[in-house]
Amino acid sequence: MDGNQFSDISDIDIAVDGLGSAERFFAMLGESEQLTRFPLDLVEIEHVEPEYAVLIRKHGRCVYKRIEHEE
């Protein structure tokens, strides 16, 4: 994201991977919407057209990555 292109009419697009359930998706959407005054779109990357998922993974900015621990 180029901060110079963000304005008062911008929106925020967030792609998530591995939420697992509709309940978790809507909980995350509700919590995320409370953090900003900008319109927010949340999508599960598993449900995005494959060519867009490639672009998201290539050009998107990772803001959180869960680290799997071996047991």
How many β strands by DSSP?
A: 2
Widest sheet: strand ordering: 1-2
Mean pLDDT, to the nearest integer, reads 86
Radius of gyration: 14 Å
Main sheet summary? 2 strands, parallel
Number of self-contained structural domains: 1
Low-confidence stretches: none
Written as H for each helix and E for each strand, in order along the chain, the element string is EHEH
Oligomer: single chain
| Helicity level | 25-40%
Describe this structure in words.
The protein is an alpha+beta fold and 71 residues long. It has one domain (3-59). Helices cover 31% and strands 14% of the residues. The chain has helices at residues 22-33, 50-59; strands at residues 12-16, 40-44. α1 links the parallel β1 and β2 (40-44). The protein is globular and about 45 Å long.
State the main characteristics.
alpha+beta, 71 residues
Give the SSE layout:
Elements: E1 12-16, H1 22-33, E2 40-44, H2 50-59
Parallel strand pairs: 1-2
